[in-house]
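In response to reviewer comment 3 from the previous cycle, which asked for concrete evidence that the modeling workflow produces usable outputs, we include below a single protein chain processed end to end. The sequence was submitted unchanged, and the resulting structure tokens are shown without manual editing.
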Amino acid sequence: MKILLVSTQDYLHHPVPSRHHYIFEELAKRHEVHVPHFHVSQGPERRTRLVVHEATRFAKGGPLVHYTLNAPTHFRVLEEIVRDCGIDVVVASHVLAGMAVIRAARRHQVPVVFDLKDWFPDSAAAYYRNRIARRLIRDGVWYVTRTGVTASPPSRRPS
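The workflow returned the following structure tokens.
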């Protein structure tokens, strides 16, 4: 099976491995697992069994600036991965890049599994101390979740 993981963090450089590392490194022993690389963290590069696709054009600023500046690149790269790599299932864990991969998956009739941790508005906003930024993130995530997750699912892809 070919799986595309859109993780909530920089898969290669984040200083603390997430549950995705443990789950998908194990899956990669038997399946082809792809992951886009978001250059958000500065830690040393972690070894991986996954197929890594560069998804950062501008390695700038904190997460909000980084993901906003790179959104067009994320849409293009995720579309290319789904279209060109024969992906069988997508795991969407990231909110903004998750919207890009949901769009690509629907276009190519690939099922999407939602890993909802950061899709909850309060969870996504918890990373920000500034009240205005926190409110913008919470409202933005609520909008993205409401419009992206609740839209009609793709029709079944022929086997």
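The longest helix spans residues 131-149. We consider this sufficient to address the reviewer's concern, and the full set will be provided in the supplementary archive.
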